[in-house]
Amino acid sequence: MGDDSEWMKLPVDQKCEHKLWKARLSGYEEALKIFQKIKDEKSPEWSKFLGLIKKFVTDSNAVVQLKGLEAALVYVENAHVAGKTTGEVVSGVVSKVFNQPKAKAKELGIEICLMYIEIEKGEAVQEELLKGLDNKNPKIVVACIETLRKALSEFGSKIILLKPIIKVLPKLFESREKAVRDEAKLIAIEIYRWIRDALRPPLQNINPVQLKELEEEWVKLPTGAPKPARFLRSQQELEAKLEQQQSAGGDAEGGGDDGDEVPQIDAYELLEAVEILSKLPKDFYDKIEAKKWQERKEALEAVEVLVKNPKLEAGDYADLVKALKKVVGKDTNVMLVALAAKCLTGLAVGLRKKFGQYAGHVVPTILEKFKEKKPQVVQALQEAIDAIFLTTTLQNISEDVLAVMDNKNPTIKQQTSLFIARSFRHCTASTLPKSLLKPFCAALLKHINDSAPEVRDAAFEALGTALKVVGEKAVNPFLADVDKLKLDKIKECSEKVELVHGKKAGLAADKKDFKPVPGRVAASGAAGDKDTKDTSAPKPGPLKKAPAAKPGGPPKKGKPAAQGGTGGTGTKSKKAVETKEIVEPELSIEVCEEKASAVLPATCIQLLDSSNWKERLACMEEFQKAVELMDRTEMPCQALVRMLAKKPGWKETNFQVMQMKLHIVALIAQKGNFSKTSAQIVLDGLVDKIGDVKCGNNAKEAMTAIAEACVLPWTAEQVMSMAFSQKNPKNQSETLNWLSNAIKEFGFSGLNVKAFISNVKTALAATNPAVRTSAITLLGVMYLYVGPSLRMFFEDEKPALLSQIDAEFEKMQGQNPPAPTRGISKHSTGGTDEGEDGEEPDDGGSDAVDLLPRTEISDKITSELVSKIGDKNWKIRKEGLDEVAAIINEAKFIQPNIGELPTALKGRLNDSNKILVQQTLTILQQLAVAMGPNIKQHVKNLGIPIITVLGDSKNNVRSAALATVNAWAEQTGMKEWLEGEDLSEELKKENPFLRQELLGWLAEKLPTLRSTPTDLILCVPHLYSCLEDRNGDVRKKAQDALPFFMMHLGYEKMAKATGKLKPTSKDQVLAMLEKAKANMPAKPTASAKATSKPVGGSAPAKFQPASAPAEDSVSGTVDSKPDPKKAKALGVSSKTKTAQGKKVPSKTSLKEDEDKSGPIFIVVPNGKEQRMKDEKGLKVLKWNFTTPRDEYIEQLKTQMSSCVAKWLQDEMFHSDFQHHNKALAVMVDHLESEKEGVIGCLDLILKWVTLRFFDTNTSVLMKTLEYLKLLFTLLSDEEYHLTENEASSFIPYLILKVGEPKDVIRKDVRAILNRMCLVYPASKMFPFIMEGTKSKNSKQRAECLEELGCLVESYGMNVCQPTPGKALKEIAIHIGDRDNAVRNAALNTIVTVYNVHGDQVFKLIGTLSEKDMSMLEERIKRSAKRPSAAPVKQVEEKPQRTQSTSSSTSMLRKGPAEDMPSRLNQARSMSGHPEAAQMVRREFQLDLDEIENDNGTVRCEMPELVQHKLDDIFEPVLIPEPKIRAVSPHFDDMHSNTASTINFIISQVASGDINTSIQALTQIDEVLRQEDKAEAMSGHIDQFLIATFMQLRLIYNTHMADEKLEKDEVIKLYSCVIGNLISLFQMESLAREASTGVLKDLMHGLITLMLDSRIEDLEEGQQVVRSVNLLVVKVLEKSDQTNILSALLVLLQDSLLATASSPKFSELVMKCLWRMVRLLPDTINSINLDRILLDIHIFMKVFPKEKLKQCKSEFPIRTLKTLLHTLCKLKGPKILDHLTMIDNKNESELEAHLCRMMKHSMDQTGSKSDKETEKGASRIDEKSSKAKVNDFLAEIFKKIGSKENTKEGLAELYEYKKKYSDADIEPFLKNSSQFFQSYVERGLRVIEMEREGKGRLPTSAGISPQMEVTCVPTATSTVSSLGNTNGEEVGPSVYLERLKILRQRCGLDNTKQDDRPPLTSLLSKPAVPTVASSTDMLHSKLSQLRESREQHQHSDLDSNQSHSSGTTTTSSSSTANIDDLKKRLERIKSSRK
User: 3-class DSSP state for residue 1161?
Assistant: First the structure.
């Protein structure tokens, strides 16, 4: 119990982590209670457990885990911070809970996942669950699927993203586990419930049986739309509302909401896009033009296969579409036409909206091809056009379709009507507006009277469909003239129609029809509907209803389109009847009289033509009374007006009678069903009287009444033509005045502008000024409706007239057109329609503009013109563009069909000639104005490319592009631009210009949009990346645009979209979103729109007069004059827009001004560290330049944006220096108050200051230096320590300023440098200043030298980096400078050093020229100072310059002190190539000091560990020893400094940073090279070797693969590693400490390195491999023999087992083993045989003989046999006693094998060798019999003389002498040198001894001949080849002989034999001779090696090793003399003893 009581006392969170399960159980239980008690979700209590929740769910004890899961669930449900744990907890649940056998655990796990989803972490949960699906444990997979299914079922498809789940479904269905397949089936059913048939395509390829099962299940599902059962936290209020509704019984609204959700996912979205353009056959475009139809067919079939892919990747399909279109239009083979149509269908289906841009080109061609009769062709064309329709909108192709409707061919007419009918089915009331319906109905009405029945039927079907879609109310006005029979037919068709969108749209319309609502309200309702034309579904809302009634009662712009008849709110049927009566046949005068007499009193008719005016007047009065009393239905209008026109008719002379007559006409028109026929009877008379002073008003009244009855457009046209066909100017002017007035009363819709314009032009040319004035007034009124484009028609007028017109327009500017007051109230139905139009100003505008006469220019766009525009010669291209401009100019207004022009112009937008780009943009601007709103259909193929031009680098091109985009948008509205992905794709491009222009444009346009564009959300991810763009302007524009995006999308959507960002980015973006939320403008409602419509009236922004001058200039582009005007105009228009759009944002700027009071530096936690990391990781440019380029400034701006106040940043980066001064003043003011901030942003401040150093303005420079002085004073007070990053990006630039010509500045800079030493070690300052001495500026050189002198004076010699010697040599160079000041400074500095250091100076500065030396001596004499003892005193005297006494003089500050770096710097400078580092481009250098500094706290204690005596710091430098490198002073007392320092340094060997590792290795090397210190390493060998092979592994895997890394660095590191190891393995005592495991890993690393092909490719790679060879030999010889042998055996076993390991690897391991076998005779006694045999036993157990024989190579088995054989031979039968460590000897064949061997060696003694000798002898016998003996001997001696075959030659000579004992070889020896003779004699003696020995043992014991060859190439020195043939023991005399040979070879005498080293050491390694060789000998040896290397390209271990030994010595021997080498040999010998 004692234990229990211990943990009982612990706090809960500690219990939860306790190792006892009981403690944890208790902890979880208590935690659960705590969690249940905490009421506040934000309580700090929750945070305590934040890190523990993962442990709760992953507890290893099942019982405890259950309790943990319960607690975790409560935590997730209630804790505010729980979201942070999502990833780790869910992954814990997946891996550790879902595999539990207990169902309860799994349930809780699933609950936890669902709870995370509820707290808005759905995406993270889903990600982890999807990862879980890849788990190998099926239990986990099943549980993950189940969780996903439950989540989907509960939260619905809006929360759970289906796309990723559907992606993995097919894989799950293929699982081998039934449970997984079953669960997959369940989730497939659940997904189907949500998205229905969209799931079918992705699952079409699963097993048919499974698919069938699914189909069966799917059928059973309820058809109703599913609803989520559970809600996210943020939605839970909604849930509560829903519940209330349900309890109240009405679920209508909720149902409505959710209804939209169901078809949320489209199967298309779930598919992967396929790229097909690249897969087209190479010769496709040739083949498609081929003459043979078979070839064309092949080409088409290839395309058909490709387009069968259901989803295609976007690309440029223009050429392909063009080719297919050509086939459809021109090919004579109908089969190919059908095939091409199929291909187009495939493209349209696969590309969807992305095909839209090509639709306009293809539709006319397909429609015209319907003339084909063949059903299969017709069907293919129908499919194609239907598919294409879905990619675009009816609006876009309407022009093309309507054009074909007038075709004479009945089939074409029929098919076009049918296509229209099918298209209408896809429309809704909102996507089929009246403006679109009208032209279609007009065309179809012609067709219902066609002679061909099929044409009539098709037209009926189309009209019926329209009726169904938009409802009767909308269509009836267009059917006014249709007789009853046909109308019924249309209605009948309408009832049969099935709509694509369900009945919804139609019903909505119908519902409205039957509401018994008075006209006005109905109007507003419909208007609301119209309003939302842009959104996907109609949703009339209260906001939009109200304003309709606002502008003076009934809605605007009535055009009672051809209605007539009775008053009141007529019902539909009645309306139909009335409309029929309006078209009235002309009646004869008799019939009229008859009808009139029926309704008028008889007297009245008689008196009509009385000659007495009074009678006539009385008659009129009666007439009037009768008319007033008549009922509408009974009134025979035509008869009555005929009566009035009867003689005298309109020639009436009495004005009273006339007035009465006109009044009666007005009455008849108002009260009766007045037809156009009746109107024609009276109008002539009315026009005649309109100019009459007395009757004019009555005439106008009558005309107005007629206009109301017969619609204004018709009446006006009639009246105008009549007025101008007669001569009376009064009539003309009054008619014009009436018309002006009428337009205001009736609105403008339906008026034929073209007809008016010609009449107005006639009027303007009139001589009578009154006519001209009236015409101008009329133009003014028209201007209100039509807008600036009206002016274009009158540009040819005389300037005087034009200025009057402009003045009139000016008056009208800013006025809204009045709301129509007539033409509506009378027929409510007509009114309602118009209301719709009036409400959405966009439409009104387009109506007016649609009335402008448009010219067809497609015939002028010839193929010649198009090819001109695309010509290679820019002049011809320009001509082409000029022609286009002229065509458009001439036409003024054009029809949308412009042939191939769009593609031609698109090509010019990226013309290399910028002038042409600008010209193209001007043309496009013209085009927009000329084409008007119809330009919509070109937005995708021409508008988007204009946006691309916004990314141009030239400012003027960009502004032209922006003007063009604005001109287009003015015509099209924004909807077209924002639809689809095009705009977001543009924003995605990382072009700063494009981004800032586009964002600026959106920020301007979005506020004016009333409805949210559906695809706007696609731009959001790119908007976020713009917020973090490197370019400051882009960021600013993105921030400005943010509120407007939010205005449309809402904060929630925007915040959700941040989910995919990186965590750091996400936080920043969310902060910006919060800020934007505060500035978010309100969405403009309809009323807002109405008020903010300054000019446009019903044609709002589109025709703002502001752009009038632009129009001007467009037409005048040919003259240069109006250009400036254009610029101005654009300026104006943009101003007016911003004035409207940006009311709210202006507040923000105010706010910013007020914000100046806040802090100027924002402290961003870890901001500086992050910036350093980015710089180190090369994510940003390293601050390094000769002059600052733009990208550096931009980068700094970007970095500052997050931590410097916006307003200050604007000042800092202003183009005007005054602002820089302001910024500096502010920074000085805030210096004291914002210390934290200043230090947090110090790196940025210093970088900004460096930019100021490059300014030319002195005042800024002075101010900057002033600031720096204060800054560094502050930093030293704060005891801040400058980081390497800050120093390196600032000091070099400060030093530049030391050479300024102005004295004050130089003084200031020196003062700053002095202060800097307080925050940055002087020793590190030194190299920077030293760099400054290399400047071209002599002042700078002099100042830097003086500063160096000051540093030495203040800090002593320690500051001299890299070493005092090097530094002083550099300084001494300047004594010979040509500038006097520099010479003096250099001399003074050296004198300073002399004062500190005495005569040492002369040694340090090396040799100087006599002149320089004498100057220096002179100067030293003059300075009388005597050197002080040491600088230490001075250091003590300056207590403010605290410094540790280590040579690094590093400043110790509050933070972790930097200990090693500068000490390592010295080491670094000695280790190899100090210059190598300079070769890296400075921006991309690794910041080494920084990296060294980055080692955290480990370093903190270091300075105390290594305390050096400064006095003897220089001794190593002063007394150079003949070592390779001078030993640096830091290790003087290393051995006394305990193991901790060594541990620390060893730990750095494995560092990932190359330089850290090199530093550490250098230090260890220094220890190892000094024998007295080397023992300090004892006890650390394994640790060091582990670090080393870890480093090798790191280099191999990471550094070598890192392409950014300079490979010189890697080679340098390799050299250090290998050098160290060689030093280590030269010391036997240390080498023996290495344990087996470590040796195994080390050998593995070394062999891998030797085989690394990447190394061989590097310059010094070969050298590395050679050194490794040498090292391997050392390791084999010096390590503990048991350990190394054991290690090699294990390594061989591993390499043979590993499938990945290369055969070369095993081969090298075996070569090492052979080497060991050769060493065995000498080492056998030191080996622990039992252990080796155990290893062999294990090896043989893993690899029995049979298995070994299966190896590809026979080497393994031979190696093993050789090893065992050698051991047997050396140990004899005793070997069997060494099997003690093997437990079960029968497991391997080892014992049996050894027994066999022993037996074999006893049996055979010498027979084999004898046979061999005989064989050899007989061979020689034959030979000698054939040839002369002399020749034979000459051959043998030749062999002995050649280096390669010496051995063979000696052997043959021995055999020969043995056979012919009397043979005389004397003559051959006589001519040779004494050395050669003794060599031959000795050689023969050795062979003799060997042969005698061989007699006793069979040869098979040795390595077989060919083995020898592979193992030891002949190139190796003789020694190795002599001793290695056989491994048997040989008497010492043999070795003595060999040694003699060796000594002689190396030029040593053989006299002294006493101090010979042990023979073994010489024999065992062929490297020895080279060590002792003389220089000459070496050279010959090297050439020999070179030859042999060429022969043996497969150089392996031994040969390589001998090369390397050769080369290593060259390097030394070239510098040292032979005596020195001899001494070294002596030293080696003595160390070996």
Answer: strand
